[in-house]
């Protein structure tokens, strides 16, 4: 039997302290939709700004804490109808040498951080009413970035996992969806300052605002579509990089490595 949800139009968003997650929280609050915000750190100023939001201090890398959070929402009959698994990090993990720690941290956040939500929801699949689970992926998944290997692998694995979940759980009330984003003007993009300059310039030409991205994600989340690339032109950028990798020997070898 399905749980009766008190908030059929509520949304859980991970990573709302900045960037796209914060933009999404702001968007939903302004629409009068109940938001559950999941962040690894508490931000008193942010909480004061959004008194209607239910903030949860949970590191998404902590599977037990995520499971507990979902159990708590189930107990209170407050499971949201939409989960936006947005929290993510980007790290240069292969600049002068390969950093296993950096690589592991990125995967633990971007891939396992999302899967930590998927596992308990899948366990509840026969009890939940329609629940949309939206993963925020990246066009990076189309072409390897040798500087941020973990980021590329994490987003590729996340996208592929959601494709499989979408098929596997097609006949249940869990609707797995994924958004493939191009560069968006947020701190994660400016943190990539170790990239070759040309890469950063090209990225900036293709970047879109948080505002436009948030509107596109919110519209997609309630639609029946299973995936979305936004903006579409970003796909051309990364497919182009992929092609260059295949055709130009030494592409990416602009910087000396020993
Ligand atoms: N911006 C882009 O160009 C772009 C392009 C493609 C895809 N994306 C994806 O979009 C998503 C949002 O990125 P953004 O650009 O908005 O980045 P952002 O501004 O850096 O925001 C990331 C959010 O995730 C949170 N977070 C990180 N690790 C966490 C953890 N272990 N537990 C809970 N929260 C955690 C951060 O919290 P703290 O404040 O504590 O760090 C922050 O709130 C990411 O998945 C990213 O990969 C972004």
Percent of residues in helices comes to 40-55%
Largest sheet: 7 strands, parallel
Termini, distance in Å? 61 Å
State the fourth-level CATH superfamily.
Answer: NAD(P)-binding Rossmann-like Domain
Shape: globular
Overall pLDDT score: 90
- Which strands sit side by side, in order, in the main sheet? 3-2-1-4-5-6-7
Please give the radius of gyration in angstroms. Answer: 18 Å
Number of helices: 9
Total beta strand runs: 7
Topology:
Elements: E1 10-14, H1 19-30, E2 34-39, H2 44-49, E3 54-57, H3 63-75, E4 82-85, H4 100-123, E5 131-138, H5 149-168, E6 174-181, H6 187-190, H7 197-206, H8 210-222, E7 227-230, H9 232-247
Parallel strand pairs: 1-2, 1-4, 2-3, 4-5, 5-6, 6-7
Helix pairs in contact: 1-8, 3-4, 4-5
Key words describing this protein structure:
alpha/beta, disordered N terminus, 9 helices, seven-stranded parallel β-sheet, 258 residues, binds NADP nicotinamide-adenine-dinucleotide phosphate, 7 strands, Rossmann fold
